[in-house]
Design a protein that fits this description.
Two copies of one chain form a homodimer. By secondary structure, the first copy, chain A, is of the alpha+beta class. Chain A contains 20 helices and 18 strands. In chain A, strands 1-4-5-13-12-9-6-8-7 form a nine-stranded mixed β-sheet. In chain A, strands 15-14-16-17-18 form a five-stranded mixed β-sheet, with helices on both faces. In chain A, strands 2-3 form a two-stranded antiparallel ribbon. In chain A, strand 17 and strand 18 form a beta hairpin.
Chain lengths: ~525, ~525
């Protein structure tokens, strides 16, 4: 911290001192404050400190992006566009439309939708007017969109950035600003058909992205709730126990059990009964077996969930995706809004240990860090009704592709590959070997642009031929159109193939066709 | 407002009362507060009020998007994608790469870059950690990107949303969240070549979007500064007078003069001298004429600007765009960071008066509201240096396409057009006329997906043929593949052309090829 920073710290401390010494009403109010209100007050004082600092003069400017965020350079963008194009093709193949919503919503719109994760929401500063928050996912804005526009039927995808004040782990592709690619089906339909299509989509996308082997875990909120009831978890603890079960992919059962008993107040034997169920994995057979479980099948919720699970697997059979889908009772997913089927896709591939930082290697096996979940989703039949003034429900099911982790893997692949990633699509560079031909170069370039040719020209009056050729080599431009006094006199252009170094004189009138032919 | 809202209002007022009555240090501090600090305090109290309200219980939830923002429905998205694709094609034709930056930056990164517009920046709430703001444009993040990554040469485009707490005028396409499409060239090059390419790009894009006639106004900051000096404006008033001149596109000269004299403290005759210059318009000829102006050409800044303007027009001549480009001394542009050439494109077309609200019709002519600026930009040679720890400069010039206004016009066009906008690309619907064929429909659909065909199937066990055909008519699906007991027995599918109602039996093995052939 620089000297001026210290000054404002001191000013700030002075202000606090004065306040607390002679400001009993403020203090009296404070004594009734909740922890979040105290956080607020601290935030305000820090803001005030910043303001005072700003008024006092300059301090050292830190050149960086905000914590947990990153820029994408052209090479990363080229990879990103390739990934998006595969995903969008799949969504379009399934007949989806697309929509967009604002990056921020009224704070209230997001309130009460994310359970324990709500603390990770970014709020905007109150600058007068509405209280706003950055979107945390694309699902809640989608439900708000449906309710606001009274839409009861839609199949849509939405690709956009979402924001979470989480602990970033950038080498594993976990950021505070990250893309989600969501596909959702809203509408009252026959059971499990849209749900099965969502799983088919995850399967298709992960296959086409060629990220190695993967598994898609499936479960149902109703099965979880039924299981909790049967095991003796009190109703009011279902959601919080659900959050704890959700940690089973990162924590050992022993630690999850400890959290259930010590933090969430379950008895040991209730936890053990849960432990038995959550170790179960299978397919349609497991659904059938649990339907025979006398206790579980007595529970209405569990029975409905298991019956649907059986039906789901029959559709997945028709879609030929059962080789990767597992019915797994340990899958919970933390979000509050799920009401039926839930699922999550996990890559088997691991990121080489050398790439991850020591702090991130907790729980990693010898081979490296597991990439973890790359897609997830489920059914949320109650969310739209929470927004509708009359509580009208619109059943929904959807999936979200965790694209950032996929980008991380693709970037690593590109780095180790020998193939160079092109970041432009330029077909030809207009060049000259002689001086004083800038005007002729600009004129020809303009003619090529007007004919739809992707063309570049160096912004120098008299560039060296070598530096013009170097630019082509560096950026992968395949052709050079070379102008000289002689070519101008003859009404031709020397067209050079950068890779083979072959040159041929092409009449000006044929140049556009010739470039098109050579860069198909 | 509901009862609970009133309660928290009263609580809030009570709190304020208590504070001001028995809280002298707070008050003493207040007396030294700036207006922005008072705004802050008010914002904090409002936040506190909201918190108290939240703790007390429910209040009426307002279902809406944040002020000045909007959702895009599938039809709007289809239009948006068409516009983007034209613009991106143009950027790629000119050899540009693309990058992306986070939606928020450190608050400091944006500080001091936008002059009087800085008050429109959205800040994030201080939730502990860094002070952040939403990006206000894509230019400052671009400069930050170059400095952070030590890049001295790049031609890039960036299409993303930016945020301004401006007064929204939604029917004219003015939002608080809106897209910018930026193209910039960074690097030390020979004078005016990249600048001319930017203007060529604006010309190409506005031509291809087919929005009717347009003009591109050009000026230079150095000419403006020289003109101010020659007219007798004190140095420290250059920027603020520049902001006032910038209003000439919305206000009459008389009102602009009034602001200069009454608010900015210029003398009448200084303002009148400015008035003479800012009425001048022309092309290369005007630059030449002003170079003969004894006072202006004596000014170093003005001389450099006019010399470059002459050179710029010679390049624009080669690019064949001088029919739309005007050298206009009244063009100012408010942003602080411009150092050389500036420009702005204006559509001649107007939005029908019936679409705009009365409040927006100020200054509108009889025919309707002028759409105003749809593109703008200029040279900013100092901005990157503001971020570089050693102050190293990277000269830049760029253009930003004001895409929202273009969307508004395109949407209105689409509404009045008889042609229906398709929002999906589905080639075929898999249907059946008989009951109990869901499994067969799902199996065939899956086969089509696997073959890369865009296919849909209704999520009903036994949908009526009529409702299946209706779905095709409504969404523009051209083909229906109909399954029945007989077709299954014969190993064929009845392929129906929705428009012509013709039906033909196609062997299952030929179906994919037949669909591809018919939906080229």
């Amino acid at each position: 911290m620089n000297a001026l920073g210290l000054v404002s710290m001191r000013l700030c401390a002075g202000l606090m001192g004065r306040r607390s010494a002679v400001n009993p009403p403020f203090l009296r109010f404070s004594s009734g404050m909740t922890s979040s209100q105290i956080d607020e007050e601290v935030a305000k004082l820090l803001q005030l400190k910043a303001q005072l600092g700003g008024d006092e003069g300059k301090h050292v400017f830190v050149l960086k992006t905000a914590k947990g965020t990153r820029d994408y350079n052209p090479k990363q963008m080229a990879i990103r566009e390739k990934v998006f194009s595969i995903i969008i093709s799949c969504f379009k193949r399934h007949g989806a439309e697309t929509i967009d919503t604002p990056v921020f919503e009224l704070k209230e719109t997001l309130t009460g939708k994310y359970g324990e994760d709500s603390k990770l929401i970014y709020d905007l500063k109150d600058q007068g007017g509405e209280l706003l928050s950055l979107r945390y996912d694309l699902t809640v804005p989608f439900a708000r969109y449906l309710a606001l526009n009274k839409i009861t039927n839609i199949k849509r995808y939405h690709i956009a950035k979402v924001y979470r004040r989480d602990n970033p782990a950038m080498t594993r592709g976990r950021y505070r600003e990250f893309y989600q690619c969501d596909f959702d089906i809203a509408g009252q339909y026959d059971a499990m058909i849209p749900d099965a299509e969502c799983l088919k989509i995850v399967y298709e996308i992960l296959n086409e992205l060629d990220l190695g082997d993967f598994r898609i875990k499936v479960n149902d909120r109703r099965i979880l709730d039924g299981m909790f009831a049967v095991c003796g978890v009190p109703d009011e603890k279902f959601r919080t126990i659900c959050s704890t079960v959700d940690k089973l992919d990162k924590m050992a059962w022993e630690d999850v059990k400890k959290e259930m008993v010590n933090e969430k107040g379950l008895s040991e034997d209730v936890a053990d009964r849960i432990g038995e169920y959550v170790s179960m994995q299978g397919g349609q057979d497991l659904a059938e077996r649990l339907l025979q479980d006398p206790k579980l099948s007595q529970n209405k919720q569990a029975f409905a969930g298991l019956t649907d699970m059986k039906l789901l697997f029959s559709y997945l059979e028709l879609f030929q995706v059962t080789d990767k889908v597992v019915f797994d009772l340990s899958l919970a997913r933390g979000l509050d809004y799920y009401t039926g089927v839930i699922y999550e896709a996990i890559l088997s591939q691991t990121i080489p240990a050398s790439v991850s930082t020591p702090a991130e290697q907790n729980g990693a096996d010898e081979a490296g860090v597991s990439v973890g979940s790359v897609a997830g989703g489920g059914r949320y039949d109650g969310l739209v009704g929470m927004f509708d003034p009359k509580g009208r429900k619109v059943p929904c099911v959807g999936v979200s592709i965790g694209i950032e982790r996929i980008f991380s893997i693709m970037e690593q692949k590109a780095e180790t590959s020998s193939e160079k990633v092109r970041t432009t699509e330029t077909q030809v560079l207009v060049a000259s070997a002689q001086k004083n031909l800038l005007e002729e170069r600009l004129k020809l370039t303009s003619q090529l642009w007007n004919a739809g040719i992707k063309a570049e020209v160096l912004y120098k009056k008299n560039p060296k031929l070598l530096s013009q050729l170097q630019h082509c080599e560096e950026t992968g431009i395949p052709l050079v159109a070379i102008l000289g006094e002689q070519e101008l006199k003859d009404g031709v252009v020397k067209l050079r193939n950068v890779a083979s170094r072959e040159e041929v004189d092409v009449p000006r009138a044929d140049l556009v066709d010739e470039i098109k032919k050579r860069t198909l």
